[in-house]
Amino acid sequence: MRVTEIFHSIQGESSYAGQTCVFVRLTGCPLRCIWCDTDYAFYGGHESSIDEALAKVHTYGCRLVEVTGGEPLAQPESLPLMARLCNAGYTVLLETSGAVDIAPVDPRVHIILDVKCPGSGMTNRMHWPNLSKLTAKDEAKFVLADRADYDWAREILAEHDIAGRCTILFSPVFGSLDVRQLAEWILTDRLPVRFQLQMHKHIWAPDMRGV
Q1: Cys bridge to 108: 59, 66, 86, 151, which one at CB 3.0-4.6 A?
Q2: Which stretch of DSSP H or E encloses residue 38?
Q3: Are 5 and 208 in contact (CB under 8 A)?
Q4: pLDDT tens digit string along 125-150?
């Protein structure tokens, strides 16, 4: 498989935000979100076996691991990688775009599914059956660029009835949507969602890699 980077950092998003975490960032993505902040992972990277990746993860002595990208599920090798991480006793998170079927993912993996709002420019690439496969251990993330994205996300929550099945994350596009504004919309509508910021971008420079 092709790997862009493996690094140890603070988990900046999801219900695991604030915890130390090892990130395995795989190379390549079939999507081109307008606000993407990891486009450096579209190309390049280096060849790695699953054994080599596991050995690198083990050096950090951290039991929380996130497999991310790019789009990790674009590489079939991501599936046995996650299974072997689970076998080794790690808590495994998968950050996926929602454009690729999650059915083959090991059921022990905690899926963080990025539901592509209109502001991303990639809504038409969503694999909508994924939403029905989310369970209580999983999370659905909506990255919101503006009020139109917020209203759209609210409709998706009602249409697919996912708020009762898994954690829902509402996150503003960094530097685009005012964080207080989003918080007030959520409070006004009493939405059953978790408001989140990209914590790592407040700790380090927003464009810094390997964090």
Answers
A1: 86
A2: none
A3: no
A4: 999 999 999 999 999 999 999 999 99
